[in-house]
Known about the structure:
By secondary structure, the protein is α+β, with helices and mostly antiparallel strands. Helices cover 42% and strands 16% of the residues. It is built from three helices and four strands, in the order αβββαβα. Strands 3-2-1-4 form a four-stranded antiparallel β-sheet. A hairpin with a 5-residue loop joins β2 (89-95) and β3 (101-106). The longest helix has 39 residues, at 11-49.
Amino acid sequence: xxxVQRKKxxxxxxxxxxxxxxxxxxxxxxxxxxxxxxxxxxxxxxxEQESYxxxxxxxxxxxxxxxxxxxxxTQPPQTExxxxxxxxxxxxxxxxxxxxxxxxxxxxxAVKDLRPEDYRMFCEGIFVKSKQELxxxxxxxxx
Length: 143
């Protein structure tokens, strides 16, 4: 009659191959680390072997307590802004140190929804001292 052949399981072969590849990778990694630490040790030893002359000089004219002034970091100047109406849009300009105004961007404020007093105020222009004030102004008129 018919014989049923069983498929041989090769899990043992595959696991042996995997373990071999793992061991080779581990050995390579360990060798690289060993070479790097040996190189670093060699560099450190060569630096230690170099002799640097030490200067032992006594200065008698210097007072015992010398005050050293260290300048404190200065804060950058705050940017000023000018907000004005131009061609139906509310525009923001940065004011340079020399007083020149440069266009930055348009605000999302609908001019048609402004009250007449506010519209007149934007037509004349508003100087804003900081970014925080500019954000507050934008929030007040855009909602």
